[in-house]
Amino acid sequence: SFMQGSKLEMPLWLAKGLHDSKRRIISVELPKIYKEAWRTVFSADANVVDLHKMGPYYYGFGSQLLNFDNTENPQIAQTAFASLPQTFISRFRGIMDSSQNAYNEDTSALVARLDELERALFRAGQKGLNDFQCWEKGQASQITASTLVQNYGKRKLAELDA
Known about the structure:
Methane Monooxygenase Hydroxylase, Chain G, domain 1
């Protein structure tokens, strides 16, 4: 058994299960990367931070921590995670620029410091660049509309029929 006030690390799924609004079995302390000292680093220059080393799912995990807002410190969620979108925005441009400027290159160094969401964006940018280069060289048999555009067109047709 644990004494009241004991501290231990546990997986997110277990912490979410034990921290419900009625019983309050546990309270959750923010990981250091989401605390004020790190928010200061991010606001100074978010692009220098190795998010993958600090937590490969920085944005996703940070948004899950919003489940632990509690009565003892109601402003935790607002103060700790106000920097999440700003960090993402300030890093996004660099990620997309580097994905568009690295054609047929080893990109491992470019993605090493990115969290998994950012890596997915980088891969999407690379795929778009590669597809365009193939089309430009006449190597693409046809150009197809993206799923997003196709669905938008179907929705518009459905509205006209209604």
